[in-house]
Design goal:
- This protein has one domain (13-340): S-adenosylmethionine decarboxylase, CATH 3.60.90.
- A hairpin with a 3-residue loop joins strand 6 and strand 7.
- The strands form three sheets. A nine-stranded antiparallel beta sheet has the order 12-13-14-15-11-16-19-18-17. It has an eight-stranded antiparallel beta sheet with strand order 4-5-6-7-3-8-10-9. It has a two-stranded antiparallel ribbon with strand order 1-2.
- The protein is built from eight helices and 19 strands.
- The chain is α+β, with helices and mostly antiparallel strands and 343 residues long.
Length: 343
């Protein structure tokens, strides 16, 4: 969430929609596979890499399993073999791929990529993005130069709301157990102005006040929260639990282009209550839910459950306007779009 706003047509605008890059690494060398760790890479190296992305580190916290960075534009998470880089505005995360792969091999010994997930919602103002991020086709072309086994998907309506995904689809995946894994993401637009006002310096004087006043601190219990309230508005937070789970929220509160993203890897047999708490907190007019889960996860049935839920009863009815289910080599995914009823 940058404090600097782009100017177009005499109206200040900020693109809240994030580009989300997640990469799992491994090594062809047994020793490096066991001993390598992305968290061993020096912070100065990450700072240099993030300059390519056009953002910087503004806060840091860690647990035994995860290092979490709040960035000037969203967040970065590092665990032993997984990188999550989530950036909004006019950042350019795919421009850092060559440098990233070299850095990871040099310091962690990881010379192979197990899997890649690059995703984003459609932008509100795509023409303001920097190459290769103006069009998904351009992003895919760049990703294909690094990952010949990649596949691209567009879920939803290209003429309305959609969600793009690029991931690997190898005929013979690298046989390495990553353990249970799951991710839920809720991307919200058309948000309640009174709720969004909390994330401005006019209403709250600190990030801690905004976190408590909004109820973000109650969304997922037992999270250690690292939050930041931007000047004059905008909010980012990372939350970590002792058992290796994370939560991250990013808020662009301006009424004309309000946007909130929620993401977590907490394991749940049903995400119904999590979704309801998030909706109750932010009160969006429209939202997208994506759920990834591998077969070892307790959440393995959640993608199918979401596919079968055509209505959510929360403060009036939510109408599911679109849903798509995908099965990959190691993961199941559902992407569902909802609007407040009547839409």
């Amino acid at each position: 969430m940058a404090t600097t706003k782009e100017t177009a047509d005499s109206v200040q605008f900020f693109e809240g929609v994030e580009k989300l890059l997640e990469i799992w690494f491994t090594s062809s060398n047994d020793k490096d596979r066991l001993q390598g760790d992305l968290r061993m890479i020096p912070r100065k190296k990450w700072e240099s890499l993030l300059k390519i992305v056009r953002c910087e580190i503004i806060s840091f916290c860690r647990s035994d399993q995860i290092d979490a960075y709040v960035l000037s534009e969203s967040s970065m998470f590092l665990s032993k073999r997984r990188l999550i880089l989530k950036t909004c505005g006019t950042t350019t995360p795919l421009q850092c791929l060559e440098a990233l792969l070299a850095l990871v091999e040099q310091y962690a010994g990881f010379d192979q990529v197990m899997n890649v997930f690059y995703s984003r919602k459609n932008y509100k103002r795509p023409e303001m993005q920097i190459s290769p991020h103006q069009a998904f086709e351009e992003e895919v072309a760049l990703l294909d130069t690094f990952f010949p086994d990649g596949e691209a998907y567009c879920l939803g309506s290209v003429d309305n709301d959609c969600w793009y995904l690029y991931t690997l689809n190898r005929e013979k995946p690298l046989e390495e157990d990553t353990g249970p894994d799951q991710t839920i993401e809720i991307l919200m637009t058309h948000l309640d102005p009174d709720v969004m006002a909390i994330f401005t310096r006019d209403v709250c004087s600190s990030s801690d006040e905004a976190t408590q006043k909004s109820g973000i601190d109650k969304l997922i219990p037992n999270m250690s929260i690292d939050d930041f309230l931007f000047e004059p508005c905008g909010y980012s937070m990372n939350g970590l639990s002792k058992n290796g789970n994370y939560m991250t929220i990013h808020i662009t509160p301006e009424p004309d282009f309000s946007y909130v993203s929620f993401e977590s890897n907490i394991p749940e047999s049903s995400y119904d209550q999590v979704i309801r708490r998030v909706l109750n907190t932010f009160k969006p007019g429209k939202f997208v839910v994506t759920i990834f889960a591998n077969e070892r996860s307790i959440a393995a049935s959640c993608p199918r459950d979401l596919e079968q839920t055509d209505q959510l009863n929360f403060d009036g009815d939510w109408l599911r306007t679109d849903v798509q289910y995908c099965r990959f080599n190691n993961y199941d995914l559902t992407c569902a779009f909802y609007s407040k009823f009547p839409s």
